[in-house]
Amino acid sequence: MKFGIALFPSKKLQDTVNQYRKRYDARYSYIAPHITVKEAFEAEEHEKPQIEEFVKSVASKHKPTEIEIKKVSSFAPKKSCLL
User: Lower CB count within 10 Å: N or C terminus of the chain?
Assistant: First the structure.
């Protein structure tokens, strides 16, 4: 099974970002705006509780922080070209 770790901004920021995404990304509705912390990785379903506990443990040792968004990007191809 694939897992990943992401941070999701406030609903207000997601709504703002989605207004731009609607114009430029036809697939914007498939996943909410987020910040990837750990890219997708493979683990067994039975390992999920240990993964959750580890993430909670690490997070509990850090204070919340503010993040200033200056640029966003997408994995969608900008244009196709042949070499």
Answer: C
Who's near 43: CB < 8 A, 6+ residues apart? 1, 3, 51
pTM for the whole thing?
0.69
- Report how far residue 72's alpha carbon sits from residue 27's, in angstroms, rounded to the nearest whole number: 15
Residue 72: what pLDDT? 66
Q: Tell me the torsion sign for CA atoms 8, 10, 15, 17.
A: negative
CA quadruple 9, 59, 75, 69: dihedral sign: positive
- The one-character DSSP state at 31 is S
**Two structure tokens written together for 71:** 């640029």
Smallest CA-to-CA distance from 40 within 13, 31, 24 is with: 31
As a whole number of angstroms, the distance between CA 40 and CA 68 comes to 24
Q: What are phi and psi of 45, to 5 degrees?
A: -55, -40
